[in-house]
Amino acid sequence: MTERLPLHPDTAPPTDKRVDDLLSRLTLDERIALLHQFTPGVERVGLAAFRTGQEALHGVAWMGPATVFPQSVGLGATWNEDLVRGIGDAVSAEVRAMREHDDRIGLNVWAPTVNLLRHPLWGRNEEGYSEDPHLTAAIATAYTRGLRGTHPTYWRTAPVLKHWLAHNNETLRDTSNSSVRPRVLHEYDLKAFHAPVEAGAVAGVMPAYNLVNGRPNHVSPYLREQLRTWTGQELLVCSDAGAPSNLVDSEHYFDTHEEATAAALVAGVDSFTDHGTDSSTITGRIRRALDQGLISESDIDTAVRRQLDVRLRLGEFEDRDPFEGAGAFDTEEHRALAQEAAEQAIVLLKNDGLLPLPDTAHIALVGLLADECKTDWYSGTLIHRSTPLDGLCERFATEHVTFAEGVDRVRLRCDAGWLYVPDSDADASVRGAEGALDPALLAGRTDLPPLTTVTESGTELALVDWGNDLLTLRAPDGRYLSVAEDGFVRASAEQPGGWVVQETYTLEQHGNAHLLRHTGTGRYVAVTADGVKVAEQGTAFQVEYVERGADAVARAAADADVVIVVAGNDPHINGRETEDRTTLALPDHQDRLWRAARAANPNTALALIGAYPYAVPDADTELPALLWTAHGGQAAGRALARVLAGDVSPAGRLPQTWYAADSDLPDLLDYDVIGSRQTYLYFEGAPLYAFGHGLSYASFDYDGLFVHRDADTLECTVTVTNTGTTPADEVPQLYVRPLDMPVPRPRRQLLAHRRIALAPGASQRVTFSVPVADLGHWDVTRGRWSVTSGTYELLVGASSQDIRLTTHLTLDGDKPAPRPVLVDGLDAAAYDEQRGTAIVDRTKTSGDAVTATGPDAELLYNACDLGTNGVSAVRVTVAGAGTVAIGDGGTVTVPATGGPYNYVTLDADFTARGVRDLRVRLGGEVRLARLTFIPRGTTV
């Protein structure tokens, strides 16, 4: 007989009692089974099967057709929380609607990604919102509120934020260590997560693959010490895929999987995403960890309780689904919202009067992305699609638009003959009503004939060069040459894609010919008796160029009134999950295309459609107009055309800095944004385009900046007037610049923003309410948040550089004070500056230490108060082996302590007095955790 919980809210006990009641009915084995991502049902207590994890980054992903909104970085570029909340609402409605017909659709959605876009070469740049923690938190809060829904009791979906914490590289992503000092931790990385969690619309987080301060995120003490202190509700922590096993297999942080699983569970991981749908490996590890005394049943119950709490909030335990019939899918409203989002995401980088285009313009539309509507790894399947070519033909009429893709057209010849793509009319059964190929059916197909050779001229292929020597080859029917599991090469893919892309190749010089290496398998294309396949030894091909792409572009450009060059990236190539970019530069082939267009016609604009910033200083100098947008989803082409035509005035703003060259970038794995002067907050060079930059077809006047402080809040008001002749949105931005502070502070820091719509001549008074605490910083001398007494410059403008008005504010806050090291000692990681060091884990469960990463490792602690009588000795808490040298003396030689976690305390003579800066130099493999100082006259 099936037992049921009390089901109706008017008669049900409080939430925690309902969960505890259900928990008490479950056996130990049933509770352990609930700790895997795919949990079985327990029929006798009315518990259905459940899984954590439904990707919903910018629409419902991986589950077939859905409304596809712009990429997350594009949503960040809108600077519009109201819009993004509406998108979250639409996505959650589609999740519910799709679930009614497919129980594989999960209600625990893994979105959004709030990792800060610290480094623009990160392969997953498309997934984040901004390099700024305020903007990221604001957009993330809006999206999660939409996902959660507005029901007073139940959640439409349960969002989980990705990826906790300080994760911004794919290179060595499961073994790299993000060294994050306390100021960066509190002022930068934690801030992006804090606001959405505190707002109450977040169900939990997913830890990232990397280590932070030497400790894997899946056993991070910050889950307990930070995350779970920000809200009174239960939070669910879902592991990233395979990460629990990484603790042993790649990170070697624990000796056994039982230790690793136990440590993750105790640290706060509640759901283990590992080994796909097979839960037996994880549940076996948990059972053995329990038997070995590494965990208790209470640890298991804590995690299960958090899972059941989320499921109860989703309405699962009610007689009637509270959202039954309330879902909506591919509605007119969702389609309109997708178009509005695509329009609002477009950023006008430069315009010397070329745009907007007149209705009568003859347009040459050229470039590799001119007739593409690209999706990414976390997209749903497009129901509708609009390419730039579609959009311009619709808006300006087909006869006014000339198209040239700009690909190189080639034929490949070998000793056996010319490469030939057989006819594939036999695949009509997989075509839809409008003749479109279903990419899900085409991917990996083996029923199509493989390539072969003929003695005639062979098949003309479109060779698409994506940079970094990676290219795709496309048959005349539009399908890409791909390699299936049987190793044969077929024209079978609608687009490059998949976890391992099977549609990219590299041409390698081989004498006077080339070998064609398939990057997905690492093998070479070879002509065999039964067809063309990949093999260890490849066939040498001669490449005959039928037409160069730049020549086709130049011809089209010469006869046009204006040229629009559409360039950018394919989201599956040269930068994506598992692969960082190697350069900010536009690929050489695309660079040649805009130059060829410019040479043929000076009225050339460059429209960049990509997931990343690019370094295009020559284009900025030579071209009259540039635009950028992220891949804009299903309405991308129509949105671009409406902006080019002036139907919509562009008002997107850059959510991250666009640097002028690779030389402006820090090392990819350097997470110290303060010390290495990263992002607009600290960058001291001249960016190509600044954070917050974006132009308009209108002009705006800013006037009447007024600041009022009321208790713990600042109210800043400014009047913005549209002085142009076209209706347009404007995005006033409020920044702060602390002046004459005792520690390095941001050059400018975003405090607030607002996107507003203004008719010509209209004005709006905008008020920003900002907590005074937002002007503060993490004070390492006190170990807490602090607002320092002093003068703060408040700046209002249209970007971080386009400042229109300023005023000054004097605050009476914390007075700068020396470090009381004689009383409190020094935590090694609480330095002011460092060189050649990294923060590592003091123990596997908590605490920090510092170790050398180079030969000149040094730490600086400013204004240390050693007392009027001074000190006579220093005591260091250290592990490993090496040396610690304090100031001009006090060198401590550390003999091998027996391991990196075997700490000892050692003393050395050290004399100093008064307030002074202390420099500490590290040598060898020593780990320094703490320094204490012995007052003069004290017996050691």
TrEMBL record:
Keywords assigned: Hydrolase, Signal
Single GO MF descriptor: hydrolase activity
CDD domains registered for this protein in UniProt: beta-trefoil_FSCN_BglX-like, CBM6_xylanase-like
Start and end residues of each Fibronectin type III-like domain: 730-800
Short name of any one Pfam family annotated for the protein: Glyco_hydro_3
Cellulose binding type IV domain mapped to chain residues: 819-935
Record-given protein name: Glycoside hydrolase family 3 C-terminal domain-containing protein
Organism (species): Streptomyces aureus
Taxonomy of the source species: Bacteria, Bacillati, Actinomycetota, Actinomycetes, Kitasatosporales
